[in-house]
Structure formats: C-alpha cells, structure tokens
Design brief:
The chain is α/β, with parallel strands linked by helices. It has helices spanning 19-30, 37-49, 54-62, 80-89, 104-110, 123-126, 133-143, 157-166, and strands at residues 6-9, 16-17, 75-76, 93-98, 117-122, 150-154, 170-174, 193-195. The strands form two sheets. A six-stranded parallel beta sheet has the order 5-4-1-6-7-8, with helices on both faces.
C-alpha cells in the first residue's frame, strides 16, 4: 500500500450505521401485511449469505414497495471520527464515493465528518451511481489522482469492491451490516483486505 495517496469511502454501513434506518423501512413496508419482521429479517440474511444485496432481494421476494428512507436514523459508527482523524494525520487524503441522495455534504457536516473529506462524489450530484465506473472515474478527476494511487473502502462487494478492483484500485471490504453474514471467500480475488470495523484500517494503511 506504499503507493496509496487517497482513501475513498462508501457511507452507508461503512461510515454510518444504517441498521435502525433499514429496520424502520421494514416496519413501514410490512405494515398492514401478514409478513412479520422476523420473516423479513431471516430472508434478507439468507439472501446476503448468497452474496447479493439482502435488503433489495427480500423486498422483491415479498413483493413489497420501498417506503421513504429515514436518514434521521443513521448514526456514525463509534470509531469513525478517530479513524478518519488518524488517517489524515498519517498524510492520506480522504474522499467519498457513495450512492446518496442530495445533501451528502450537509449530512457529513451534521455528523462532524465533513472536515475530513477533500472530495465528495455522491450519486445524486454526480449523475452516476455505483457500480457504474463513471462515478469512480469522476472521483479520480476531482481528486486529481489515478486508480492505482487509491483504495476503496466499502461494505458491498457488488457496489464497492468489485467495480473498484476492476479499475485497479486497492480494496478493503468492511463487513458491517449484512456483509457480516457473508462468507469471506466471496471476497477472494476482489477484496485485498477484509476488516470487521473501520479502526482496523489503521493496521493496513
């Protein structure tokens, strides 16, 4: 990792714990149906173990319609602030590559995290969404760096790790949220490193 100058992060289930927001949406979606929360939860975990997006797959499986996202339920992980501060102290430049609604910078500011990031490539503002390579390439342009000088940190193999690896970025798969149920072998050939919490990055970078 000696050549790495930039560290790019996903936001959801990487910097921010979305558990309560996902659960809130589940309760909204199953309201008035015969589907129990436990049934939905079991299904999304089972789908996640197959290496796919468990939440979306479970929604499709039960024939539900997505309800509004409750961003107010999102909470930064406890080690995020200290880890980002340590990476900056080590001389790394930090950026965001994430599928997010408008207002990403404002949400980061509210969480006390905006100051750490020099580049924010969020899908709503950029016009491209992961896993499309264009959102990654736009981030490189904004950062004035190349893929080989950067690392992508994210929880989803399909959206974060696989497309980043295809562009020659280094990759760190953080096994938060549903990713914690996925077999480590799923990341072989795609994830250069696997961690269980953000602070473990400091042992890599």
């Amino acid at each position: 990792m000696n050549k790495i100058k930039w560290v790019f992060f996903d936001i959801g289930s990487t910097l921010v714990d979305e558990t309560a927001a996902y659960d809130h949406r589940v309760w909204d979606m199953i309201s008035g149906t015969n589907i129990t929360f436990e049934e939905f939860d079991d299904a999304r975990i089972a789908f996640a173990k197959q290496g796919i997006d468990g939440n979306s797959a479970a929604i499709k499986y039960f024939g539900l319609t997505k309800t509004p996202w409750h961003s107010e339920d999102e909470v930064p992980y406890s080690d995020v602030h200290s880890t980002l501060a340590a990476l900056v102290d080590k001389g790394y430049k930090l950026g965001i590559i994430a599928n997010q609604n408008f207002g990403t910078a404002e949400r980061l500011e509210a969480w006390g995290l905006r100051k750490f990031f020099e580049v924010i490539a969020a899908s709503a503002e950029i016009g491209y969404a992961k896993p499309d390579k264009e959102i990654f390439e736009k981030a490189f342009v904004l950062a004035m760096c190349c893929a080989e000088e950067s690392v992508m940190v994210g929880d989803r193999l399909d959206n974060d790790i696989v497309p980043a690896k295809a562009l020659a970025m280094k990759t760190v798969w953080i096994k938060n949220s549903l990713a914690q149920y996925q077999d480590a072998a799923l990341g072989e050939g795609f994830a250069d490193y696997q961690v269980n919490k953000l602070s473990e990055l400091l042992c890599i970078l």
